[in-house]
Amino acid sequence: MRKGGEDRRNTEGVTRALFATAALVVVIAGMRVASGLLGPILLALILVVTLSPIRSALARWIPGWLATAVLIIVLYGILAAGVASLVAAGIQLASLAPRYSDRVSDIVNDVQAWLQDLGVEANDAEQLVTRIDPSTLANIAQTAAGVVLNLLTNIVFLVTLLLFMAVETGGYPSRMARAELFRPSLTRALRQFVNGTRRYLVVSTVFGLIVAVFDGIALWILGIPLATLWAVIAFVTNYIPNIGFVIGLAPPAVLGLLEGGVGLMIAVIVVYSVINFVLQSIVQPKIVGDSVNLSVTVTFLSLIFWTFILGGVGAVLAVPLTLLARALLVDASPGTRWADIFLAGSGSLRGEATWRAGQEPTGPRRWRIGRRRPQNPWQK
């Protein structure tokens, strides 16, 4: 009898797991299909969440409607700057492509001769190098123009979302206070998401500006064309975890090869590697610390997942969106907080993860079931 009951429970557990997996696959497929709609919504949400303290600070000195107007102007200014940068990048790349067509052909011929010197048959070498199209730069420019066009088609929707969300920011604190009466765990998780997102984006922005300035100066000294454009791209790719540095390095390295040969390309790679490694791998992690409480593996997997779902927007917002998903799926329910142990970085497990579980943040003492636990001093 007991064995039959255990088998039935195991079967029910497997069935629930299969249904949950199937539901997850359906949700992911739906999110990918609706990525054109979800991307602007999530981008607007992250921007408003990050910049809403501007309104809160101004509302202490000026009327609320004026503080909201300033917030809207700031949001639209950031959006306009981003669109203008993309348009300028597309135009400059399109104008630069014809300049290096002959140079690309020369490089193709040099590579073919080098392969033949290594003992590769002439026909095999020709087949390999014919895959290198001299119009590669033109194709890149066309791709960039397509991205800009796709963004412009969603710009009206994004502008409208930013307007509505910014207008309603003044009522969010009171709504959160009322919601806390019914779902304190959920509101506490959402506050953690908001604070973590702000810390991450502020620090990433500061270090992105520093990296962009140093990279731009280095490229200008090396004589790489469009040094300012590559500095802007370095700033944007700083928001992409793990591989953003490689994405920002590729265009100036290719231009270095076309402009001055292999030596200049190696110089660009070395300078970029030194600057970005020191600032992004040594200095930035020490300042950020464990503010987002995500392990390196989880961060990398989140980059792949959100890029698969949302494309370029998902790559830039990978960390904030992962924080949002963790707040809703893990931190909001006491029954799933154990999963945070596997998501958080090793340096944050002792304090933050135990606080999320409702325990004291420090100390070895554990409270037994049925014994009243003192109120968390950090809990409002």
TrEMBL record:
<feature type="transmembrane region" description="Helical">
    <location>
        <begin position="228"/>
        <end position="250"/>
    </location>
</feature>
<keyword id="KW-0472">Membrane</keyword>
<keyword id="KW-1133">Transmembrane helix</keyword>
<feature type="compositionally biased region" description="Basic residues">
    <location>
        <begin position="365"/>
        <end position="374"/>
    </location>
</feature>
<protein>
    <submittedName>
        <fullName>Predicted PurR-regulated permease PerM</fullName>
    </submittedName>
</protein>
<feature type="transmembrane region" description="Helical">
    <location>
        <begin position="262"/>
        <end position="283"/>
    </location>
</feature>
<feature type="transmembrane region" description="Helical">
    <location>
        <begin position="200"/>
        <end position="222"/>
    </location>
</feature>
<comment type="similarity">
    <text>Belongs to the autoinducer-2 exporter (AI-2E) (TC 2.A.86) family.</text>
</comment>
<feature type="transmembrane region" description="Helical">
    <location>
        <begin position="303"/>
        <end position="329"/>
    </location>
</feature>
<dbReference type="InterPro" id="IPR002549">
    <property type="entry name" value="AI-2E-like"/>
</dbReference>
<keyword id="KW-0812">Transmembrane</keyword>
<feature type="transmembrane region" description="Helical">
    <location>
        <begin position="12"/>
        <end position="31"/>
    </location>
</feature>
<feature type="transmembrane region" description="Helical">
    <location>
        <begin position="144"/>
        <end position="167"/>
    </location>
</feature>
<feature type="region of interest" description="Disordered">
    <location>
        <begin position="355"/>
        <end position="380"/>
    </location>
</feature>
<dbReference type="GO" id="GO:0016020">
    <property type="term" value="C:membrane"/>
</dbReference>
<dbReference type="Pfam" id="PF01594">
    <property type="entry name" value="AI-2E_transport"/>
</dbReference>
<feature type="transmembrane region" description="Helical">
    <location>
        <begin position="66"/>
        <end position="91"/>
    </location>
</feature>
<feature type="transmembrane region" description="Helical">
    <location>
        <begin position="37"/>
        <end position="54"/>
    </location>
</feature>
<dbReference type="GO" id="GO:0055085">
    <property type="term" value="P:transmembrane transport"/>
</dbReference>
